[in-house]
């Protein structure tokens, strides 16, 4: 067992994650922060982290720090 | 009687579950965690658990730890 | 008078209910549990309970324990 | 002046009401209960109560106790 | 300045108002009550109050006491 | 820096504002009041205030006091 | 790691940001303020700040102070 949702986010701070949104887009980047609403902060990857989710045409790697409001999120894959 | 919704989730930690989303997709995996919003953590199945829900073309077995935000969830079937 | 919504659910624990969802589907089963958000747990009927709502093509009798998130629910008919 | 919304519901417990939903349907029945979210319980009318709202093709008189989740409700007419 | 939204409603209790809903309909009537969610109670006008909003084909004057759930409301015009 | 959203509203009480709604409409008027949900009260302009937002065909200047429920609001421009 | 979402906003007060909305529009301006709902205040840029997000045809630089209600926001890019 991996723990509660926020525990999983805490354990993945600084690691690459893929955030899938309700509009179909997926953002990938380094998990810079989060809060209890699942608002997340993504940062450009440092180069050595690789999100495990498959990248397809609707996936965008963030080029600068990006705050995503939690109510848009479908799933977060560390 | 099986108990309240969160009790049922607690009793199924580590077991295979199928999570049906509002967009029609179903994710299956091992229930790694959850919280009071029905945010859930799915993990790749260890091999010996089998969700009971029928698998069809819109069902995806998670390949890595996946946090699903609760407001997307229609149903969870242990 | 039948009482407040949660009182009606409490009185019907273990009995057959039909849960109609916003997506048009109706799930029937034994009411295994509920909480204040109207999240409900349905279980396969034991054989002697029969929901009173009419069954049509969009009605599905649950084959295993199913947690339904309350915000999908339109109505619950004991 | 008739009072606050919950006061009006309280004053109409046991009386016939029409509940119009966001999906266009209208349910009529006897008001069996309610709570602060405007979740309501409708019961088959005892025979002597008559909701004042006009009945049209999308109006359904409940045939058994029905809990309606408040977030589907547009209006309630005693 | 007219005051906070609930103050404006309080000042208009018993007066004619027009309530515009998200589905495009507008209900007019006498403001019988309200609460902090902007749930409102409309009553048939006593005859001497006249809502100031223009009446068009989608406007309906309530013929009996009507509770409108606040989350349907776009605007209220005393 | 202009301050938090509610501070900006407070500072503009009595001044002309344009309120853009999710349905595409824009209402202009004098800001008569507001609350923490961004419910706002617009009043007919006194004549000397002029909202800065461009007026186009979907813009309506309120002709009487209008309460707008906050969950319809996209933006408010003093 | 960059910190929690509100910390990132706090650190960017007075700097240029791009706010992407659910309706597809993107507003750019100087971050004048924010609150815990991710309601934000944008102000016309002073001239020396430049949001990092790409500007395309759906991007609008605010010409006057603009309050954006948080529930419309998809992402904020400092």
From TrEMBL, chains A, B, C, D, E, F, G:
UniProt-listed Pfam families: LSM (PF01423)
PROSITE patterns noted in UniProt: SM
Keyword Ribonucleoprotein among record annotations: yes
Spans annotated as Disordered: 45-78
Highest taxon of the lineage: Archaea
Keywords: Ribonucleoprotein
Sm domain segment(s): 4-78
GO cellular component: ribonucleoprotein complex
Gene3D superfamilies, per database record: 2.30.30.100
GO molecular function, one term: RNA binding
SUPFAM superfamilies: Sm-like ribonucleoproteins (SSF50182)
Name of the protein in question: Like-Sm ribonucleoprotein core
Source organism phylogeny: Archaea, Methanobacteriati, Methanobacteriota, Stenosarchaea group, Halobacteria
């Amino acid at each position: 067992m991996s723990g509660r949702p926020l525990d999983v986010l805490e354990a993945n701070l600084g690691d690459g994650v893929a955030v899938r949104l309700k509009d179909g887009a997926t953002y990938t980047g380094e998990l810079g922060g989060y809060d209890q609403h699942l608002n997340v902060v993504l940062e450009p990857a440092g180069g050595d982290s690789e999100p495990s989710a498959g990248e397809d045409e609707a996936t965008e790697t963030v080029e600068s720090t990006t705050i995503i409001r939690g109510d848009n999120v479908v799933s977060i894959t560390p």
